[in-house]
Amino acid sequence: MAGRIRQVVGVFLWLVLVLLLFVFRTSHAQQSSPQQPAPATAQFTGKTSALDTAGVTVGRRRFEPTARTYWHSHPGGQLLLIEEGRALVQEQGKPVRALAPGESVFTGPNVPHWHGATPQQSMTHVNIGFPGGATKWMDAVSDAQYSGKAK
Known about the structure:
about 150 residues, elongated
């Protein structure tokens, strides 16, 4: 009987020793392994902060050839992202600009402007309005203004 107890204790001690070696090796390997890539949620270097999006509006609109907005302004400004087609945009007092897909334009707060499609091609844009209040609508864009012949 005593021999059997020594045998069980011996096996138990070997199992404890193997377990301790396993724990030691695993712990040591984790400490000395090369730096692991950052988890997918870590996407920034330095200090960043998510900002409140309350009041931000996002829309998507298609304009057929020659279609355009009236002159208008946004108290918080507006960002346009051209998705497809060709866009015409103009800020009051500046020349008409053409934009292609992938291009964008930011119009500052309270700056009167208009935007629309070219005479030959439809256009789709994404518009992002920033907090500050309602859009202020003004006069229609004349054909002369649209063609760039008048400001």
